């Protein structure tokens, strides 16, 4: 079992033990994921990039950002599992596709979207 | 190397080859993550839970949802890497903490937040 | 002055009095808006539509949802003002365009996106 | 009727004419709002604040950002209406409360949250 399957199994057991499967529908989990992405963004919104780089190495900001990263990941894994989707496979396929869409020679140094290259 | 470190390494190489590290600041990556979480939610917003369960097993909806899961995961891994955070460690620590905050006996069948249990 | 201009003026004064213009950049305000949209979604994610309809008429849920509606609106108005965009004008133009894209005869009862009608 | 009530009435008529009330539940509308907030953030994520200030005054970026501001506002007004919440009243109450929570003398030049002042 890889780490993703391992997390999915722990989350399945966690939800089952608490009779929470009733709440873990695709829509609810997608909403929870969006909520946590919002919390992650909120931790950084008033800081400058310099302040973030200085503070994210340790201390309070690191803990809070770490927690939000965890929350996003946990809901993402749970969402994918409930939908029968393999998130690792999906991510690897997407990197492959991005490598084709954004050939290094064309895309270098530019954030232009692939359909405008 | 576990799958998370593997994804992080591929994304590091992907960004370096395209001279994209300049765009991959913590704030920009957090914004990209929130944007993709929004795209995931948008795929489901007009569907009922029943329609989602029927359609997410295969076909167009599965592909689009899979792509959004991938996009969220890729930005999450890249964000964590740029901040020097281990997303797997963070997630495992968070499940442990959630198990303490939501003891099965107290939390069973209820979505009440831990500070109200 | 219409209500939107009125809110924008109050928010301008509020930020100036606290020397907060430095934080109110377009990107920061867009992040704050996404964060508040996340908080709104989080208030509803574990509730069923029936529970929401029963509870949103008054009491705690109403107050919390009201607050999140307010937060989203305030950041939206502030963001638009900082970018020199008229949100009311933009919204009215968008409804007009949506009326053309989704002619009632074609769009009735279907959530299909306009480019698939 | 103020501008908010006017927008709400137009959106009510728009939805009724297309038999779309079935889709406009509180959860669906909150999801749509989060999706549009994500689209707004996505328009800005790779740009620097300087690039945004240069480009948002006119041209393509202005149009796209304007459209996203419109989409967020329209879903917010529709969501509030479906929940029986007055968004203008909520926003005015919130500014009042923020003025108490963040007295200018204490809050000047600092983004510290009110419970830490």
What does this protein look like?
4 copies of one chain form a homotetramer. Chain A has 117 residues and is mainly α. The first copy, chain A, contains 6 helices and no strands. In chain A, helix 2 packs antiparallel against helix 4 (59-83). Chain A is globular, with a radius of gyration of 18 Å.
Mind telling me the C-alpha Rg of chain A? 18 Å
| H-E order of chain A | HHHHHH
Largest interface: pair, residues per side: A-B, 65 and 65 residues
Q: How many domains would you count in the coordinates of chain A?
A: 2
* Strand count of chain A: 0
Determine the mean pLDDT of chain A.
Answer: 96
* Uncertain spans of chain A: none
Biggest pleated sheet of chain A: none
Specify the structural class of chain A. mainly alpha
CATH class of the largest domain in chain A: Mainly Alpha
Oligomeric state: homotetramer
Give the count of helical stretches of chain A.
Answer: 6
CATH topology of the largest domain in chain A: Helix Hairpins
Could you name the key traits of this structure?
homotetramer; Helix Hairpins; 117 residues; 6 helices
């Amino acid at each position: 079992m890889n780490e993703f399957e391992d997390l999915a199994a722990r989350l399945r057991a966690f939800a089952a033990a608490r009779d929470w499967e009733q709440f873990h529908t695709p829509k609810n989990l997608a909403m929870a994921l969006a909520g946590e992405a919002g919390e992650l963004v909120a931790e950084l919104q008033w800081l400058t990039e310099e302040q973030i780089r200085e503070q994210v190495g340790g201390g309070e900001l690191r803990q809070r950002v770490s927690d939000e990263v965890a929350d996003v990941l946990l809901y993402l894994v749970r969402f994918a599992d409930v939908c029968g989707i393999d998130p690792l496979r999906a991510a690897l396929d997407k990197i492959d596709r991005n490598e084709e869409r954004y050939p290094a020679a064309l895309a270098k140094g530019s954030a232009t979207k692939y359909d405008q290259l």
